Amino acid sequence: MMKRDECLKVLARHRGDEIMVPVYKAAQEWIHISPSDLNYTFTGAMGQGSSHALGLALGRPDKRVIVLDGDGSLLMNLGTLVTIATAAPKNLVHCVCENGTYETNGAVPLPGVGRFSFTAMARAAGYPKTYEFSDLEGWQREVGRILKEEGPILVTLKVEPGELYPEDFRRLYSVERREAFRQALQRG
Asked: Tens digit of pLDDT for each residue in 141-155?
């Protein structure tokens, strides 16, 4: 099992000009680990991160889009796996931070923990590539290669909470940040 923030720091070292779509706890950590105007943190309702990422990937096929989804969030919108696989955006990497809980809501356990696999569900839905990592060394070794592959790709990251980061909900949903994101997209 990896500490989520350590896992995200590995990803940040490989980040270029990708659009990042982090949700919930990953979003709270990501805005500190890898601040950027291309961080799209405006998904709102639980389960919508992957759908927003798909829209961004289809609207901007010239840019890689990486969603940092939560397992509870994805569980709320499993239909997105079929939709993404059918749309087949080559520029989408769908990372699922799996910790077995609805962490934002007090770490309430997910139903069926240990009885399902997001990578297996993604393969069954039609994702051409899936990966799963539970150790930081494996993730460090493979992340650079994975980010260069054509998507859609689903990566399950088995994580647990790491360092505590200050939560900033105003930053996540601010009008100013939305405008900065819009301008960053326009610039290229």
From this structure: 999 999 999 999 999
